[in-house]
């Protein structure tokens, strides 16, 4: 319980259901003096917003965010920042068909087992709609991190069987798939068309890269930087796998290959993905994640209802054929929240540390 | 900072360096009335203990655990349980050669960047020696979980390029590799011999399976069961990747394949790995993790010293050619700690919940 | 930092400044199935609301609360409950006179020393206006506690030199002072008139009593029930002292007097105030608190400005001559939050405890 | 549950029963580079140690502390510091007489109601013996705070009806009562003799003063500095009341008297006790606390046993006639822990704050 707060010093507490009155977040522990307007938040929210292209759900949400506290005369004051996004596109459709139905692959069944009750409209709290607030909170963190020279970028590197051969994160910002390999855009487009026709969906793989991260962030032995990143990314809807650096490939590697040699002019490689012993090394942080295909598809599937009886289900409404697309800004936001929190934690304990005097470039 | 406590209600706080006086843990929030003796802990500790076979480090540690509090007349009292393991095999060797050297792939450099100082003997706090206390604490959790019908088993499923074709967790308990495929034991033996000869090391992949987990555990949206498992496993030394169910393979799957159909007599498949929406579904929990090959190898490598000068390093001492072997009981312990914590969390908030009356078998 | 969350399992996170857009709270960890409407919250808010009598500030705030999430079809769902109260009476007065002035007895100076900046309008975050959200959150807790037979009442027992000789908490609900001794109402009225004339203010003492609290709540050695109550009450604006049972009088007592004898039919006395060893005994919980007189008075006082220069200050605006009056429902709310949290904590760890079979009546 | 950790960034987790194998503490989040030896801890422990004078319990405990981790070559390393004190004077007396008896004024009954079981030997976890670890942990904090110019002193200001007329904290260090008024020592001595003869005990009042505290510590609205001090002090065994500055006297004060005027050369008074709006003002922090008389007295009293039957009880063993005496170093330690934690918290969020450029002297 009380699982809706993320972070230790820079904390983000969120609330809100898919079809309730609105989404709320309180960000506590934000340093004072950061210039912040709704426009800063809106820019990030718009990247995640549904209905941006024909590749995502047709749900129309303005996702207009309001700052309710913690900002005065355009700057943060150090007091908690409350954010509000009203839900606008709550079609008054009839949900009675899924009220007592447990859609396979969804959280309907587990929410009922946990709480004995659920807001069944549009997935309620289990809907990815809540991630809007992660993106808004992440935007605040990113604004602060940017001033420290820390930059976070993500891109999709796989959608179904289409795998990126290039990791161009700048290019990823310029296509509707956030795909890092522009040469694959036609294939992606064709794939989505085929999926929409088939009434099916597909999974995805995303890479997040953070550059400019100073060495020294992370709090072993449990609150390691990579452990907190793993939690942050795995907490995103539909994510089933998380890795750092070479990830699962390390199982087949030898120590002589994996260990990244250090030289006065830099690391020779980055198999570790920027973390050693749970602490940032100053190299690029590299994290990968995989998202399952959404279970909201029109192809009928077998399931049960609340009474435990066999049923068939087919999701008619609006849905993303690949939820991985809109997850790109969410993944960036979650990594930003982790870095922000660890930056403050490192500063608290080790403010007086005598640095060794240099950092490997 | 203060990153050495794991859990919210069932908390484990650990301390101790590889070559300091000893390892300590305080387990707080343990339910009263559990029968507990040092023998219960020792049994699990012995599985992780170094020097058990020719496949692991030759360091000899009795790893004898003492219970200092929280147990009275053979039962837990609900007050904190303190555990102590004295370090015994601290060879008074000369560490001056690594005092100012940053071994590649190790945490030497990052600890110095973070704290400005480190206990360089045997890796200090960054040594996997601290995981002994995770195993001891996990043994308490497992004892309680067993009474609830929850059983946690793990096994190695890949070592280097040798990949298990069978997932026999019972068999895994009976070989020195904890390997789930007994038909590969000769290959594994040959591989370790070759590695020791070459002075190299190799990575590994481990699977953890928990059965008997009731539906309803996990606290969305951030403290999801899978998110906490991801953090728990990623916090183990050398782990670089974590996944649930089909893991990274979901990127290539379609929704019609991935979603596990539900029927009155059970789920038709388990692509999800036992978690839906961050909450346990009652299916088997399936988590995979990958460990990098240890960087402590005799093959010389390039690195720098504290002064930033280029150096060569070759680790002579005792080391595990595959740290993944001894990580099997550690992974089990970490999953046990997560389940224990979430069992108590679920009970706190939802004690009065009207269950839906059945659980899919 | 991140000091705006109260509680461990039943958590309340608040935000909002006196003259910002509004006040927000997110209550996380609330059990599902509680019937809850805005009317439940409004009833408690109205007790705290300014402008209710001539004894409190003339500021007019509707204090209309909106539930933004966590409630579905009239019942809590177990997901976070977000509350919003818009500030309506933000007179567009000119605050330039206090912008750079540090009012004595106020938090102006300390907020600037802490954050380097502050929202100076009406005290900003330091205003007691934030306590509206404590009352709203407390109303949710009280609703749940009432179902468990736990009832929390408070009353003012001293205002300035006027001291209650009766502790009639029912009567306290029926006068504008929440005073427990109705025979003093004329004196209180006369005192307030005199204070308003003199442009001064006065302190107060409040007693909170909780009945029906089961034995066993409290988590020694640090999170004792009385320790958490002490924190809860001391965190209310203007509170300078907190005590349990006989409070400071115990310093002069002897053990033979203080210890409350136990008999099969009940405790013989309640010097302890319902807590032994940090755990509730089943007796009435009795807590006292004292609030300082507000520093917002028209009598001029010496102070400094941001430049460190000597200044005179006189607070003209609307103010409560005795902030203790409106603190009565706030104190009740804070004790409710503590009890709610500890009820859930006790349930988590000790659900299976074999009770000793009876509770001293 | 899990109530045995104090602090947010500088955390202290303790364990141990009165007559178990020993007491343990893990201090996490300690800055690196602090010179620390067991002698630093022992000096403080010796002040609290039983058997120091004829005024305290005759129990003989060496209270020899061992540092098990976190210190290397005489300095803290930033990793968790584990401390161990073995219990030595565990007379193998027969406890069968109190095994099933609930001593009035003690936690016997409440522990059994909470946990269903208790270690009844010498009070188990509820014994003040656990406070030894608070003192040891506090000694680490005090060492660090001293380097920042922060000094914490306490003294007894009342024992029974004997009330100090002087507040000489230096003098308090030089008498066995830690009494701040040396002129009362003969009265105190006579009082203790009389109490021992009568087989009774007496309460006490203690004042803690911290000087050199910078302005800006405290995290409103819940984690105020004074709120955390209130919790810290109320968590000490036998404490029933806590106050800041003028404490309960503020109820009778007027705003024109209470508010401390500020001038360029300093505050004109310190009614507030060094805290405004939950944040330190730079003035001396002044906190008072009251401890009840111990219930362990030889005068027989009425109570019940586990079966709920009426019984008489008379505590024969060794006991302190005034537990307030030895609480003086404990109160200092708890205030040190709060200040240490808040110093780190302030540093985390507000490291870059532009100070207003001066602090009122």
Automatic annotation (TrEMBL), chains A, B, C, D:
InterPro entries: Chorismate_synth, Chorismate_synth_AroC_sf, Chorismate_synthase_CS. FMN binds at residues 125-127, 237-238, 277, 292-296, 318. Pathway: Metabolic intermediate biosynthesis; chorismate biosynthesis; chorismate from D-erythrose 4-phosphate and phosphoenolpyruvate: step 7/7. Its cofactor is FMNH2. Keywords: Amino-acid biosynthesis, Aromatic amino acid biosynthesis, FAD, Flavoprotein, FMN, Lyase, NADP. One of its GO terms (molecular function) is FMN binding. NADP(+) binds at residues 48, 54. It catalyses: 5-O-(1-carboxyvinyl)-3-phosphoshikimate = chorismate + phosphate. This reaction introduces a second double bond into the aromatic ring system. PANTHER family: CHORISMATE SYNTHASE (PTHR21085:SF0). NCBIfam families: aroC, PRK05382.1. This is Chorismate synthase. It comes from Aliidiomarina taiwanensis.
